[in-house]
Amino acid sequence: MKENGLGADVVSEGELRRALLAGFPPSSIVFAGVGKKEEEIEFGVKNGILCFNVENEEELNIIEKFGRKYKKSITCNLRLNPDVGVKTHSYIKTGKEENKFGIDLATAEKIIKSSKRYKWVKIKGLHFHLGSQIKDVSPFIEAIGKVKKFCLKVNFKPEILDIGGGFGIPYRPDDRVCDISEFGKKICDSLKDFGIKKLIIEPGRFIIGNGGVLIAKVLYVKRRKRKNFIIVDAGMNDLIRPSLYHAYHMILPAKLRKNGKIKADVVGPICETGDYLGKDIEFPSAPEIGDFIVVMGAGAYCFTLSSNYNSRPRPCEILVNGKREKIIREREKYEDLWRGEK
Ligand SMILES: Cc1ncc(COP(=O)(O)O)c(C=O)c1O
Question: Which atom of ligand 1 has the smallest separation from the CA of 53?
Answer without folding.
Answer: 1
